[in-house]
Each structure stands twice: as structure tokens, then as C-alpha cells.
């Protein structure tokens, strides 16, 4: 029994709808999946329904853009309460800044004599959490670049002329935000960030887990992070980080983490709720029954 705990839908920069993702998950034989769209949970309702129809367990989640000591870090929040008002408020802020950033990137492109219009990017993105991949797709669609890679390499990568830094919240603040929404905070793809020295700081801030298994991690990286997770008593998670088709096939199915990871996430969420004095409804076996007495 396996799970994929890192998937993006077209509610952020993935190309599959939640229903298409659930269909792929079914064909891959997953028992559980999480939707981890960037800075939004808007796809979770549809994903939950689609997973239910496919008899797959669904873990509501989001991948938050955060910063620590000048480095961009992605923090996955799992088992989040999608109705939590503080979380929704923060996500709305993220999305407004992402929108403004699209205008900024388009302006830079216009200065470079690429007459792309922001409206074309928004029409293509059709979501509240637009990002560079949508600009890249618009550049390809308009014929200014022949591939997404070219769009990133020429214009959108960090340091390239149309790159604009993204709004981020502090990693410690993000961990607090995730916790107050009933969730667990997991550092996404640590192998891609090269900031292992920050991990103890994140552990001190209450981080719950490490995404040891990821489609872009080498075997050596996976072993290293499994070791670090063990050392700091962190939960182990993993996922494909599927954004749709990748070099001719979808990434979903390329990474299969043991279902145990999901059970451990649930146990930790439940323990946090009990320790934090949150109210637990009748069933202790169902993490979704956690109710925040303050809300
Ligand atoms: P943003 O959140 O707007 O900064 O965009 C980051 C997203 O761009 C990542 O989550 C990836 O999905 C995507 N990305 C980053 N680099 C590349 C690349 N070279 N080619 C295609 N997509 C990329
Ligand atoms: Fe992405
Ligand atoms: Fe990420
Ligand atoms: Zn991701």
C-alpha cells in the first residue's frame, strides 16, 4: 500500500485537474494522495470529492513559499484545516502578491521587446496562484520561446532579466501558521535547497518532518535525509511533485512512499491536537475530527 504526498493541480502550476490527478492516482494503485498546490488550498475540495469517488484517501495540504536566512524554502503543510481563517487570510495575501508579480514579470518582458500581455498569462493560468510556469507557457504559446526550459533559461530563472523575487513568509512563521491550522509542517525537497545547516533551526521552530523521498532526489540524498529525519525524530514523507506531463509522461507513479507515512502523519496530528488541548470528537482514529475550540 502506497501514497504520493506531493502533487500539483491546475489550481496552481500543475496542468491536471483534481479529477485527472485522482484518475492517475487510481491507475497507479495509490491508497492515499495529498494535493500540495503552491500557496493555495482551493483545489482541495474537488480533489477530496474526486478521491472519494475513486476510493482513495485524501490528505488536504499546501506547499507554502517561505524564507529562512535568505534562502527560499518550500514548506508542505499536511492535514490542514482548509477553513482556518488565519490560514485563508495568509493564502489570499500570497495570491495577491503572485498576481502583482505576473504584472512585474510581463513589464520586464515588454522592456525586452517581448510584447506579452499579463491578461494572456492570467487567461492561461485561470487560477488564483499564478507563477513563472504560467508565464513560461504563455511565452511558448505566443511563439517567443520554443520550450518551457528555454523560457526559464532566457528569462525566468533566478538572476535572468524577467525574474522577480517572490513574496515569502519566514519559515518559523509558516510553521506556526500550519500548526494553528491543525497541520504538520514538512520541509519539501531538501536536496534541492542545499541548506541542510538550516534544518536544526527549523526543528527548533517545531518542524514536523522532512520530504526525504522526492523525484529529484538522488539515492544518496534520500539516504542522507532519512538519516537526518532519524537524528531529529522527524516524520518521513515523500512524493513525485508531479506538475503534469514531464518528458512525455506524468511524474505521478514515479515515487511510491509506504502508506505508513500517512498513518504517522495522522498520529502526529492527533497527538498535537491532544497535547494542545484541542477538542477531539468521538473517533480517535480519524484525524479529520479534530476541532479547534477557538474557531
Ligand atoms: P514560482 O512559484 O512562480 O517561483 O515558480 C516556481 C515553479 O516553477 C516551480 O514550482 C516549478 O514548478 C517551476 N519551475 C522551476 N524551474 C523550472 C524549469 N526550468 N522548467 C520548468 N518549470 C520550472
Ligand atoms: Fe511548482
Ligand atoms: Fe517546491
Ligand atoms: Zn511542489
Computed over alpha carbons, the radius of gyration is 19 Å
Estimate the mean pLDDT confidence.
Answer: 93
List how many beta strands DSSP finds. 13
Structural class estimated from helices and strands:
alpha/beta
- Total DSSP helices: 10
Low-confidence stretches: 281-285, 287-295
Helix content: 40-55%
Give a written overview of the molecule.
41% of the residues lie in helices and 18% in strands. With 295 residues, the protein is of the alpha/beta class. The strands form 3 sheets. Strands 1, 2, 3, 4, 5, 6, 7, 8 and 11 form a 9-stranded mixed β-sheet that branches. It has a two-stranded antiparallel ribbon with strand order 9-10. A two-stranded antiparallel ribbon has the order 12-13. α9 links the parallel β7 and β8. α1 packs parallel to α2, α4 packs across α5 and α5 crosses α6. It is globular and about 55 Å long. The two termini are 35 Å apart. The C terminus is likely disordered. It binds adenosine monophosphate (AMP), fe (iii) ion (2 copies) and zinc ion. The site of one fe (iii) ion (FE) has 4 residues, from loops.
Amino acid at each position: 500500500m502506497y501514497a504520493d504526498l506531493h502533487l500539483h493541480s491546475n489550481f496552481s502550476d500543475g496542468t491536471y485537474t483534481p479529477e485527472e490527478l485522482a484518475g492517475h492516482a487510481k491507475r497507479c494503485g495509490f491508497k492515499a494522495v495529498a494535493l500540495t498546490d503552491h500557496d493555495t488550498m482551493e483545489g482541495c475540495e474537488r480533489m477530496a470529492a474526486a478521491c472519494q469517488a475513486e476510493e482513495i484517501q485524501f490528505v488536504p495540504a499546501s506547499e507554502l513559499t517561505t524564507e529562512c536566512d535568505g534562502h527560499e524554502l518550500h514548506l508542505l503543510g499536511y492535514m490542514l484545516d482548509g477553513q482556518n481563517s488565519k490560514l485563508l487570510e495568509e493564502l489570499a495575501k500570497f495570491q495577491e502578491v503572485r498576481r502583482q508579480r505576473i504584472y512585474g514579470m510581463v513589464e520586464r518582458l515588454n522592456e525586452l521587446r517581448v510584447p506579452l500581455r499579463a491578461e494572456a498569462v492570467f487567461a492561461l493560468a485561470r487560477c488564483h496562484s499564478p507563477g513563472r510556469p504560467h508565464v513560461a507557457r504563455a511565452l511558448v504559446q505566443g511563439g517567443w520561446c520554443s520550450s518551457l526550459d528555454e523560457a526559464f533559461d532566457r528569462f525566468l530563472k533566478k538572476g535572468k532579466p524577467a525574474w522577480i523575487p517572490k513574496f515569502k513568509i519566514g519559515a518559523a512563521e509558516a510553521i506556526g501558521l500550519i500548526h494553528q491550522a491543525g497541520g504538520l509542517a514538512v520541509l519539501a525537497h531538501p536536496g534541492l535547497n542545499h541548506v541542510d545547516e538550516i534544518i536544526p533551526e527549523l526543528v527548533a521552530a517545531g518542524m514536523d518532518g522532512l520530504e526525504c523521498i522526492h523525484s529529484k532526489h538522488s539515492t544518496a540524498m534520500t539516504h542522507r535525509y532519512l538519516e537526518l529525519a532519524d537524528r531529529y525524530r522527524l516524520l518521513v514523507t515523500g512524493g513525485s511533485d508531479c506538475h503534469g506531463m514531464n518528458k512525455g509522461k506524468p511524474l505521478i507513479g514515479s515515487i511510491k512512499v509506504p502508506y505508513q507515512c500517512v498513518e504517522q502523519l495522522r498520529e502526529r496530528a492527533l497527538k498535537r491536537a491532544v497535547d494542545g488541548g484541542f477538542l477531539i470528537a468521538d473517533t480517535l482514529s480519524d484525524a479529520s475530527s479534530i476541532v479547534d475550540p477557538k474557531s
